[in-house]
Amino acid sequence: MSFEKLIEPLDLGFTILKNRVLMGSMHTGLEEEKDGFDKLAAFYAERAKGGVGLIVTGGIAPDKFGRLTPFASSMTKQSHVLQHKKITEAVHAEDGKICMQILHAGRYSYHPFSVAPSSLKAPISRFKPWKMPSWFINRTISHFVRAARLAQDAGYDGVEIMGSEGYLINQFLVTKTNQRNDQWGGSFENRIKFPLEIVSRVREAVGKNFIVIYRLSMLDLIHEGQSWEEIESLALQIEKAGATMINTGIGWHEARIPTIAQMVPRAGFAWVTKRLMGKLKIPLITTNRINTPELAEKVLTDGCADMVSMARPFLADPHFVLKAIQNRSEEINTCIACNQACLDNIFNQKVASCLVNPFACKETTWKLQWATVIKKVAVVGAGPAGLAAAVTAAQRGHEVSLFEMDEAIGGQLNMAKVVSGKEEFYETLRYYQVMIAKYKISLLLNTEFTSVDAERFDEIIFATGVIPRPLILEGSHLPHVLSYPDVLRKKLPTGKKIVVIGAGGIAIDTAMFLLKGSNPESIKDFNHRWHIDQHYANRGGIDESAGKESPLKDITLLQRRVGKPGAALGKTTAWIHREELKKSGVKFLDGLQYVRITSEGIEVKRNEEVQLIEADHIVVCAGQESRNSLFEQLKNEGHSMHLIGGAKEAGELDAKRAIEEGTRVGMKI
Ligand code: NAP
Ligand code: SF4
Question: From the CA of 388, how far away is ligand 2's center (Å)?
Answer without folding.
Answer: 16
